[in-house]
Amino acid sequence: MTAESTARPSRVAFTPNWSARLAWLGLAAYALYAASILDVTWERFASGLEQGARFIARMFPPETAAEKMALMLRGLYESLEIAVIASVLGILLSLPIGLLAARNLMPPWLTWPLRLLIALCRSFHQVIIAIIFVKAVGFGALAGILALTVGSIGFVAKLFAEAIEEISLKQVEAIRATGASFLNVVAYSVMPQVLTRFVGFSTYQFDSNLRNSTMVGIVGAGGIGGTMFAAFQKFDYDYLLTILLAIIAMIMVSEILQNAVKRIFR
Amino acid sequence: MTTAALDREWHRYTRAEKLARFAFYFGIVAACVVSLRTVQIIPEFLYDAPEQMADLFKRMWPIEWAFYRGGVHDALIETLHIASLGTIIAIVLAVPLGILAAHNLVPNVGINYVAKLMLVSSRSVNSLVWALLFVAVFGPGPLAGTMAIAFRSIGFVGKLFGEALEEARPGPVEALRAVGAPWGSVFLKGYWPQVVPAFWGIALFRWDINVRESAVLGLVGAGGIGMAIDTAMNLFQWERVALMLIAIFSVVVIAELIVTHIRKNII
Q1: Which H or E run contains B67?
Q2: CB atoms B137 and A51 under 8 Å
């Protein structure tokens, strides 16, 4: 109310941002609406906590019987195999696909279909792709490998194409001016500019594949997931806990390895 | 004698670097060879894969479009609600954790460490595993799916939000502290305006991922379209599965377009 005291219009130090406030209000209103639709109520939550305590109590102590541990290790090993093969296959296939999908090097008639292919690979979760492959090649590790390969192409090829689109074209021109063949242009002007980033998202993809390779077993595509889901459905919760701890340990080890690889290629 | 300096051979990498790289490549090849030799693949299954694929597409055709009104629409909307509400819950829980993990806001290494540990444990469990656990706790249904999405996203949002906070410039914060602003005001007017674009970017990115992930949660009974897919598959109704796959594809593409649009024009 000091506006009349001065001739100048009064200044507010922090102008209220009404559009942001409205957005927050809208978000809160939506959250309440969605909670009512999904039957997310406090009573269910409270009764769940009780159930959760019982569930956790049944998980302890974790199962350590020898034959079950052997079964788990076999599953984990198969998951690891699936992740390794799918990552190598997916990354090798991503190299040409990503290169051919880069819009600054390739004509549009080639990049468009490839970009569509990449988008198609990307839009489904690996577990859903695994369902299709289980039907096509039967139960087992092969379905998991194919599903994760498709998922890897969707991620690595997309980022690889984007990385190539951001390179400096001066070096490409310089190599071209020497009369180098197309493959030499790629090897000496494109790859050196994108290799570090390529290694970066390849290791990220391996990590993601390792996580998902423990899950595709839920739909029968090999790995530890099948054993885990069976333990869950049989209410064998102490065995479930053992498997979960083993998966988490495997992922932590892989993260340590990932950091080591990043240090090597820095 | 003076040519000794010119005769020196130049190497891009040191011996240790070369060795590390060689070990890395060797490790990859070895892992791949070992995996290929021991993985259990039944060749007979591989031979008739094209046949089976053709059979699958034949069963998927004609796509049962009429089923959309009866069984897909509601499940699809439920999936979207699971993804969105899960993201919102994750944001509400992740913002305080991100603040506790940022060293410049909470200058206590112990608290930072505990917050980071909570964020890491949230991230290291797959959303399908979270879904399994919450189905056991809350029973089958969208509540379990929502909580699974939320708990998986906390680690992601919290980590990136905390990192964004740590990168904030100290200038505006010091100015606010110098005039004696309380902690809340320092955060709201000093840090928040600096991290707001990063915050919405992270939230939208996670929402985009969650739309994709919420479609599979139903396979373990946590609600959404995955449950409908599971049912249709168990009954071999592939015409319906095809319809649901197309529905998921369209929703994912639309979600990505929305996110790209908001990123370009609003943030």
Answers
A1: helix B67-67
A2: yes
The DSSP call for residue A10 is P
Exposed/middle/buried for B48, CB within 10 Å: 0-12, 13-18, 19+?
A: middle
Parse chain A into domains and list their residue ranges.
3-56, 65-264
Vertex A132: Cα angle to A131 and A137 (nearest 5): 100
> Per-residue pLDDT for B209 more than 60?
yes
Asked if B252 reaches chain A (Cβ–Cβ under 8 Å), the answer is: yes
Verify whether the Cβ–Cβ distance A125 to B215 is below 8 Å: yes
- Decide if A121 touches B, using CB distance below 8 A: no
The kind and range of the H/E element at B239 are helix B238-265
Superfamily for the A65-264 domain:
MetI-like (1.10.3720.10)
Q: Quick check: B21 contacting A, CB < 8 Å?
A: yes
Decide if B155 contacts B122 (C-beta within 8 A).
yes
pLDDT one-digit tens code per residue, B23-81: 888 888 888 888 888 877 777 777 777 787 888 888 877 877 777 777 788 888 889 99
> What value does the mean pLDDT take over residues A124-137?
86
Contacts of B219 (CB under 8 A, 6+ apart): A127, A218, A219, B128, B226, B227, B229, B230
CB-CB contact of B38 with A81 (8 Å): yes
Average confidence score pLDDT of chain B = 86
Is the predicted ipTM greater than 0.90, yes or no? no
Q: Are B120 and B155 in contact (CB under 8 A)?
A: yes
Minimal CA separation from B17 to chain A, in Å:
7
pLDDT in tens, A241-250: 899 889 888 8
Neighbours of A35 (CB within 10 A): 18
Contact at CB, B35 and A85, closer than 8 angstroms: yes
First to last CA, chain B: 65
Residue B56 CB-density burial (10 A; 0-12 exposed, 13-18 middle, 19+ buried): middle
pLDDT confidence band for A2 (50 / 70 / 90): very low
Which residues of A fall within a CB distance of 8 Å from B146?
Answer: 38, 40
Structure tokens of B25?
């490549």
